[in-house]
Q: What sequence folds into this?
């Protein structure tokens, strides 16, 4: 399965200068947030691949103009060709107001509510977030700091991929696009990036879900 990852900045290659055929071969699009709803609607229309998204901290406008033809996976798990994809949008709270900003305690509560779904799906293959994991692709300033709560989630479930945004690659040369941590590839989806993921049609019966 070929998956297009997008986040934070609309790609001129896929937007202003789009030409027919540029999304050929793309089976799925995952958005890590902070993109215009019109852009997402455009991609799902011209690409004819399903588009799943989580909210970024600047996506309050989605409430008024949700991306047409796209599916929000915040606080849920969706299974596509055997690949279990979980979404947790938003970033660490850095201002008094902000619909998609959360404290560490609030993020822990969101993760706990997902436990039954993780259990029923016998784990998760891809986790899509807006904010990064603390210490893995984030920055030290409060606005772009990752969640400590994500570290525990990463350690327990060891997804094949962790897709995130929020930290723009244009912020500096020190930001890595791909970070390999134990058995997980953490990928910054800034603007656009493509990965190939082997689909899983059926899982062996002896693979048990994580028990809390």
A:
């Amino acid at each position: 399965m070929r998956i297009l990852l997008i986040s934070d900045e609309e790609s001129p290659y896929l937007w202003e200068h789009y030409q027919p055929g540029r999304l050929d071969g793309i089976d799925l699009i995952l958005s890590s947030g902070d993109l215009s709803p019109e852009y997402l609607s455009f991609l799902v229309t011209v690409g004819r691949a399903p588009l799943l998204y989580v909210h970024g901290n600047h996506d309050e406008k989605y409430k008024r103009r949700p991306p047409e033809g796209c599916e929000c996976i915040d606080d849920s798990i969706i299974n596509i060709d055997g690949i279990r994809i979980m979404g947790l949008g938003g970033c660490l709270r850095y201002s008094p107001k902000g619909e998609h900003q959360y404290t560490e305690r609030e993020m822990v509560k969101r993760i706990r509510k997902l436990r039954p779904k993780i259990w029923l799906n016998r784990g998760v293959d891809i986790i899509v977030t807006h904010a990064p994991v603390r210490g893995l692709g984030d920055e030290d300033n409060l606005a772009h700091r990752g969640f400590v709560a994500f570290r525990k989630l990463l350690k327990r479930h060891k997804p094949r991929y962790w897709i995130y945004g929020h930290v723009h690659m244009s912020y500096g040369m020190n930001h890595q696009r791909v970070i390999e941590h134990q058995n997980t590839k953490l990928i910054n989806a800034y603007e656009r990036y493509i990965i190939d993921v082997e689909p899983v049609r059926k899982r062996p019966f002896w693979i048990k879900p994580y028990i809390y």
